[in-house]
Amino acid sequence: MSAAAHREAEGQQRWDDACRAAAVLALDPLGCGGASVRSGPGAVRRRWLSLLETLLAPEVPLRPVPLHASQASLVGGLDISRTLASGTRVVERGLLASEHTQVLVLSMAERWSDAAVIPITRALDTHEGLLERDGSSLRFRACIGVIALDEGLEDDERPPAALLERLGIQLRLPESVAPSEAESIDTVRAKLLAARSRLRRRAQDPDLIERLARLAEALGIRSIRALLSAARVARCSAALDARLTPDQSDVSFAARLVFAPRATRLPQESGAAEDQEPESPAPDESRDAQPPSADSREQGALEESVVAAARAAIPANLLDSGAGVPRPRRRPSTTSGAGAAQRASQRGRQIGSVAGSPAQGARLDLLATLTAAAPWQRIRKRDLPAAGVVCISRRDFRVRRFEQKSPCTTIFAVDASGSQALHRLAEAKGAVELLLRECYVRRDRVALLAFRGTGAQVLLAPTRSLVRARRCLASLPGGGGTPLAQGIEMAAQLAESLRRGGDTPSLVLLTDGRANITRQGKPDRAQARADTHAAAGRLRRLALATVVVDTSLRPSAEAEAMAQLAGARYVPLPHASAEAIAQVAGAVAAGARR
Question: What global pTM score does this model have?
Answer without folding.
Answer: 0.56
